[in-house]
Automatic annotation (TrEMBL):
Family: Belongs to the DDAH family.
Keyword Flavoprotein applies: no
Name of the molecule in the record: Amidinotransferase
UniProt-listed GO biological process terms: arginine metabolic process; citrulline metabolic process; positive regulation of nitric oxide biosynthetic process
Family matches, as InterPro entries: DDAH-like
One Gene Ontology MF term: amino acid binding
Family matches, as SUPFAM superfamilies: Pentein
Keyword tRNA processing: no
Species annotation: Actinophytocola xinjiangensis
Length: 277
């Protein structure tokens, strides 16, 4: 019998891609020689934000800044657990100024415990809260030492995972938390040891295929029942339906030109430490 899935109300922070462009290449998906349409990117992003609100979630917005074309990828700019905010420190100099704009948003909106990292840390790009532990990716962006720093600042247990495929340069391109204790992931994105860790932690995980990973199906966002996916993620959607989830398909073709998808655009604000994902 399929398990009944339950959605929980979420609080998301997003940033409109008003100045979206691909002007440099800091991941294998970016090609500055290919045309990019910011108007199309805004439409894709708007449909994502509208979807969250239709599901009953709260969505707040950071004002975009000219000259920061990747600021739309809000997930890379903060990790919030129990109302404590750990900001970002980007590896690529092109994105470095984004961190302070997000820091100021949190301070201006009454968050008292806002900490900026001393180690390179690309936030929810590489940090994923499962409801019990913080999964922490490394290999391409986030410094391994940032994992210990996150544990000290956020006060939650951290499990390190090694990424090995440069196409999946952030943890959120290779793994998605669907509900407390339940994830989907693409094993080949991880080192052999990290694959063993994931099998141990999540024996009932949904195992994604190469085709799933390549269309950014794992850069999904779930509220425990509803899951937003790229249009092409039909295989993973079938698996989700079989496990009691309700997928919603969105076009992210323009945003994907910069190596981003639904999760990249979505920073989750968790005000309590509990088993909510």
């Amino acid at each position: 019998m399929t398990e009944a899935r339950v959605s929980t109300r979420r609080h998301y922070l997003m940033c409109e891609p008003r100045y979206f462009a691909v002007e440099y290449a800091i991941n294998p998906w970016m090609d500055p020689t290919q045309p990019v349409n910011a108007e199309v990117a805004v439409k894709e992003w708007t449909e994502l934000a509208d979807t969250y609100r239709r599901w009953g979630h709260r969505v707040d917005f950071v004002e975009p800044v000219p000259g920061l074309p990747d600021m739309v990828f809000a997930a890379n700019s903060g990790t919030v657990v129990g109302g404590r905010v750990l900001g970002a420190r980007f590896r690529a100099p092109q994105r470095a100024p984004e961190a302070d704009h997000y820091r100021r948003w949190f301070v201006d909106h009454g968050f008292r415990d806002v900490f900026m990292p001393t180690r390179t840390n690309e936030a929810e790009g590489d940090f994923t809260w499962t409801g019990e532990v913080l999964l922490a990716g490394t290999g391409f962006r986030t410094d391994p030492a940032a994992h210990a720093e996150a544990q000290e600042i956020l006060g939650v247990p951290v499990v390190s995972l090694q990424l090995v495929d440069p196409r999946y340069y952030h943890l959120d391109t290779a793994l998605c938390v669907l509900s407390p204790g339940h994830v989907a992931y693409y094993p080949e994105a991880f080192s052999p040891g990290s694959q063993q860790v994931l099998r141990h932690l999540f024996p009932d995980a949904i195992i994604a295929t190469q085709a799933d990973a390549e269309c950014f199906a794992l850069n999904a966002v779930s509220d425990g029942r509803n899951v937003v996916l790229p249009l092409e993620a039909t295989h993973l959607a079938d698996r989700l339906i079989a496990d009691g989830y309700e997928p919603t398909f969105l076009d992210i073709a323009e945003l994907r030109k910069a190596g981003g998808g639904p999760k990249c655009c979505t920073l989750e604000i968790r005000n309590q430490v509990d088993n909510s994902v």
